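Workshop exercise sheet. Pairs work together: one partner reads the sequence aloud, the other fills in the structure field after running the prediction. Swap roles for the next sheet.
Pair: D.N. / O.F.
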Amino acid sequence: KAALSADYVVGMSSRLLYESWLLSIPTLSFQPGVTREDLKALSLRDGCFCVFHDNDISNTIKKWLQAPAPSPNKPLREDLKKHQQSINMLCDIIFEI
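Structure field:
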């Protein structure tokens, strides 16, 4: 619900950031001093803006704020369709066991 009411989302590694990206909301992730490459995966997604070093903060925030806010006409990401079905798929697997 929080992501659906937002035009822009900022945070650190969290599920909210991923959900915001799925909803095509410009997403800013602060990851100062990150050392593990797998934690940088969000930066590879179109519409996600990540800060890994102090000297990147200003430019990254400017780019993030220039990204268009979501609109009713903007299509949702394909991955969202997959994730919308994941809970039902998980329940089906559990009940089959």
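Discussion prompt: The helical segments are 15-22, 57-66, 78-96. What would you look at next?
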